[in-house]
């Protein structure tokens, strides 16, 4: 069992194939371990629409209750709805989802009270150790008085909280196509968007954890083809796609053209800075576009560059008192949402920005999309360290570039930059490149790929 846990306990969450790698007895042990590590008297638990989610979630609740912890089950929810419940109720929380992974997967995203993240360095390693010990020997001793398990619906409160953070009172009528990918967006969007002057065109709102239409991962261009086509057919003002647990959103304009998450980060940053009187720090990871720190400075803010990954973003949000943070992967973090990520709140900002002026979305975001980017390109390699070392050797003697190793290797020049990072879970190197024009970006990208691929 210990060997199996090394495969399913990741840097930030638990994730694996059900029932091959984990099952309800193991979920029960995770619940007991979570109760012990958080030392909580009460927790909140939610789950997505995957066929295995209700059983795993209930087993986790049983495990925690057996240790004397009261459990509030909020049932079907998006991941950011679970974060809302953790923040509003000031309770540790657990969300059962495997996000955009295929149907046979499931997982647990855990947080402490106030949606503070639980990762390897903040409790997840201890949870794994306890589960391994109990799985290999005897189960944990039950509490003298077991906790109570109760149910609570938080959807309306979650929606009202999000709407309170964006001024939507004066937006013009908009036609919006939303692709929920058969994920939790189909559950949350109708309630969050209720009462707004929107003509909503729903796509794949049926909750179906087998994902019959396409993977619920809008960062893969193949998975937004249906949305792009529908936006054009409907003559809509924009399209929005959510991933499986609806904590990430991806936006396309009125022509079906994809808008980069960096442009969305810059747009939302400008709005959040305006809301905070033109002051505040904004977090961005090191592979967002140059446009992000530029826009932040232009709007009076202080950009803070950090590593990729929500634990690093949330740590920097807390350390700097930042008002907002964004990543290239379409995760958006808000101080007013307990520093947690919510794609739904980012989507409301886009609707407010578009509806607050008369022009099309493509024109609105042009000011935030200033450079030519490669997107993320993955290459399978035999030796990640050797390939990274080869790139460093190729560039470190040049006078026209600077190198830094905050996260992988970033090589920067006056007119371009690229970053290469190793995947933590696969034998891959991930390349992101950007330049002031398309021709330069292509040249830089191809030079880097030649070295990466040997």
Automatic annotation (TrEMBL):
Cofactor requirement: Mg(2+)
SUPFAM superfamilies: Phosphoglucomutase, C-terminal domain, Phosphoglucomutase, first 3 domains
Domain Alpha-D-phosphohexomutase alpha/beta/alpha: 7-133, 156-256, 263-371
Residue ranges constituting the Alpha-D-phosphohexomutase C-terminal domain according to the UniProt record: 376-448
InterPro entries: A-D-PHexomutase_a/b/a-I, A-D-PHexomutase_a/b/a-I/II/III, A-D-PHexomutase_a/b/a-II, A-D-PHexomutase_a/b/a-III, A-D-PHexomutase_C, A-D-PHexomutase_C_sf, Alpha-D-phosphohexomutase_SF
Transmembrane segments: none
Keyword entries, A-Z: Isomerase, Magnesium, Metal-binding, Phosphoprotein
PANTHER family: PHOSPHOMANNOMUTASE
Family: Belongs to the phosphohexose mutase family.
Name by which UniProt lists this protein: Phosphomannomutase/phosphoglucomutase
Organism (species): Streptomyces ureilyticus
């Amino acid at each position: 069992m210990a060997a199996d846990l090394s495969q399913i306990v990741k840097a930030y969450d638990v994730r694996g194939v059900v029932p091959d790698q984990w099952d309800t007895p193991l979920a029960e042990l995770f619940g007991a371990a979570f109760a012990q590590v958080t030392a909580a008297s009460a927790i909140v638990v939610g789950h997505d629409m995957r066929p295995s989610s209700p059983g795993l979630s209930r087993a986790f609740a049983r495990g925690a209750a057996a240790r004397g912890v009261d459990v509030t089950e909020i049932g079907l929810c998006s991941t950011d709805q679970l974060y809302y419940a953790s923040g509003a109720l000031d309770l540790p929380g657990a969300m059962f989802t495997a996000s955009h992974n295929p149907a046979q997967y499931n997982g647990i995203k855990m947080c402490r009270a106030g949606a503070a993240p639980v990762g390897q360095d903040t409790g997840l390693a201890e949870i794994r150790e306890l589960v391994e010990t109990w799985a290999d020997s005897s189960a944990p001793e039950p509490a003298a008085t077991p906790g109570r398990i109760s149910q609570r619906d938080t959807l309306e409160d979650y929606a009202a909280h999000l709407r309170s953070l964006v001024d939507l009172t004066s937006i013009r009528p908009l036609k919006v196509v939303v692709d929920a990918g058969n994920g939790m967006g189909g559950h949350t969007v109708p309630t969050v968007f209720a009462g707004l002057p929107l003509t909503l065109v729903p796509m794949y709102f049926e909750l179906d954890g087998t994902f019959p239409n396409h993977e619920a991962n809008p960062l893969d261009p193949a998975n937004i083809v249906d949305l792009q086509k529908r936006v054009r057919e409907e003559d809509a003002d924009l399209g929005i796609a959510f991933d499986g647990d609806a904590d990430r959103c991806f936006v396309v304009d009125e022509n079906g053209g994809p808008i980069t998450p960096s442009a969305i980060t810059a747009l939302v940053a400008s709005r959040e800075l305006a809301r905070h009187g033109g002051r505040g720090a904004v977090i961005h990871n090191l592979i967002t576009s140059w446009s992000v720190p530029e826009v932040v400075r232009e709007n009076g803010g202080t950009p803070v560059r950090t590593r990729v990954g929500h634990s690093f973003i949330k740590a920097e949000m807390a350390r700097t008192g930042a008002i907002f943070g964004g990543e290239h992967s379409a995760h958006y973090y808000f101080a007013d949402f307990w520093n947690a990520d919510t794609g739904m709140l980012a989507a409301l900002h886009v609707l407010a920005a578009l509806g607050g002026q008369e022009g099309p979305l493509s024109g609105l975001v042009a000011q935030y999309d200033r450079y030519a980017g490669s997107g993320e390109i993955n290459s399978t390699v035999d030796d990640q360290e050797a390939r990274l070392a080869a790139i460093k050797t190729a560039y470190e003697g040049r006078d026209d570039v600077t190198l830094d190793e905050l996260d992988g290797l970033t090589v920067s020049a006056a007119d371009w930059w690229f970053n290469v990072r190793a995947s933590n879970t696969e034998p891959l190197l991930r390349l992101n490149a950007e330049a002031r024009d398309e021709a330069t970006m292509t040249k830089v990208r191809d030079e880097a790929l030649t070295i990466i691929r040997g």
